[in-house]
């Protein structure tokens, strides 16, 4: 629906003129790209705000299937729900960013959001949508019988439960008890303090050095004069006079 208009320069200009003639709050639709993932809620919200202009434009284009969707209260209700829940996800994503964030802050925000999702799923199962402002605003303008309202509440509750399962799969439970030592070390229970690691084992003794001295030195046990003389004789060196060597 959006791509049909935005992918054509002619359709974009015609739709802008139609919005100006109908005194709409906006004159253009928005694109969504995965690179700018926060823009998803803006795209959905813009489609909802320009639903009347979209319906008239698509009717002139002969897009009957899309016109039927824009005239369907159930489809618009699902669109309003998507706007509300995606906006909540955007708020969570933005709160997880920043230089002062850490693992404990991430865990607290994710745990709080999961509790909120479970509360929303329980309330949706009993047809209570007070936490969805745009959905509540839309429901006040249309007439729903009990069957249609039951179907809408069932779809919303099913989607929220699947969203909870996805969060629990990608963000498993952490050891929260270990966080208490960092948050308040003076009141943290002793069992939450991990035992210090054992000291490292002593280094192994150095390997014995290879003895390169001749066998005569090893048998003598010390560097005697006779041993030195034998070495000099074997090497063909001149043996000094002991009397002269002392002086």
TrEMBL record:
Biased composition (Pro residues): 195-209
Region described as Disordered: spans on this chain: 190-215
Entry superkingdom: Eukaryota
PANTHER family, per database record: EPM2A-INTERACTING PROTEIN 1, LOW QUALITY PROTEIN: ZINC FINGER BED DOMAIN-CONTAINING PROTEIN 5-LIKE
Protein name: Uncharacterized protein
Organism (species): Eptatretus burgeri (Inshore hagfish)
């Amino acid at each position: 629906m959006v791509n049909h208009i935005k992918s054509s320069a002619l359709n974009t200009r015609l739709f802008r003129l139609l919005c100006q003639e109908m005194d709409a709050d906006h004159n253009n639709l928005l694109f969504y790209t995965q690179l700018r993932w926060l823009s998803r809620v803006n795209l959905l919200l813009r489609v909802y705000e320009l639903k009347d202009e979209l319906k008239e434009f698509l009717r002139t284009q002969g897009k009957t299937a899309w016109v039927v969707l824009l005239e369907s209260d159930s489809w618009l209700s699902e669109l309003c729900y998507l706007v509300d829940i995606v906006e909540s996800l955007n708020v969570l994503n933005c709160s997880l960013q920043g230089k002062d964030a850490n693992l404990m802050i991430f865990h607290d925000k994710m745990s709080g959001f999961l509790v909120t999702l479970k509360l929303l799923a329980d309330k949706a199962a009993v047809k209570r949508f007070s936490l969805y402002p745009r959905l509540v605003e839309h429901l006040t303008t249309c007439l729903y019988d009990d069957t249609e309202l039951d179907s809408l509440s069932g779809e919303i509750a099913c989607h929220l439960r699947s969203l909870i399962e996805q969060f629990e799969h990608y963000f498993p439970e952490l050891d929260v008890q270990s966080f208490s030592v960092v948050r308040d070390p003076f009141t943290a229970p002793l069992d939450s303090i991990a035992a210090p690691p054992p000291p490292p084992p002593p280094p192994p003794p150095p390997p014995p050095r290879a003895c390169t001295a001749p066998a005569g030195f090893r048998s003598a046990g010390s560097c005697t004069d006779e041993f030195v003389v034998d070495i000099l004789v074997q090497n063909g060196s001149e043996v000094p006079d002991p009397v002269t060597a002392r002086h």
